[in-house]
Amino acid sequence: MLNEKDVAAFERQRIQAEYSRRERKIPRDLYAPWQPAELFVRSGRKFQAAKMLHQAGAFPKQNELCLEVGCGSQGWLGDLITWGVCETALHGIELDPNLVGKARTVLPAADLRVGDATELPWDNNTFRLVIASTVFTSILDTRVRQMVADEITRVLAPGGALLWYDFAVNNPRNRHVRKVTRKELKELFPRLDGRIESVTLAPALARFAAPKSLLLATILEAIPLFRTHLLSLLVKNP
Prior knowledge:
The protein is of the alpha/beta class. It contains eight helices and seven strands; from the N terminus they run H-H-E-H-E-H-E-E-H-E-H-E-H-H-E. It has a single domain (4-26, 61-200, 229-236), classed as 3-Layer(aba) Sandwich (Rossmann fold), CATH 3.40.50. The protein has helices at residues 4-25, 36-55, 77-82, 97-106, 142-155, 182-188, 203-209, 214-221; strands at 66-69, 90-94, 111-114, 127-133, 156-167, 192-201, 227-236. It has a seven-stranded mixed beta sheet. Helix 2 crosses helix 7. The N and C termini lie far apart (36 Å). The mean pLDDT is 93.
């Protein structure tokens, strides 16, 4: 049986191979920020996330240290800038060096690193806010999921918050991802408590409805059956 480091290395290689596959196979414009469906999804989750952070008393202040795990080419770090967080307070980690390079051109003063979230290069209790967005569904191995969750919990300061966004419905056409349920999310973070909400119109429906009518997309998203993601705000117990 493989030990944890070997399992993490295997999963890292698999994810990097999936990055390459997606780069080749997925049209570049599919997730472009000007696409009506992307605008609709991003604005909706940002609005709800800001609301949840405010209600929990966890909305990030100007100089509070924030980390995004799996920051991609910018991720939510740009949203944090619009919320008033200083660029120098932003930190991110991402497996793909090409994506980190793109992020550094946009946020040159932020601390952005190439690395593996199973071994975060920061001290215990460092961050007031950690964001993990569409990260865990890309990790298929249950042990590696728990390793990443434990690292997030370790670097999160007591009273700090984890903002989580990911899908809770499997995509039958994509075997390279696996859903995270409410139950598993709670099990991954036993030291954290908070809210978990169903959000986001199913991508296929969003791409159909949003270009035609934002009102139609909003009405469809109001139906729980058509939502595919979880948005959660979990606070670390002191």
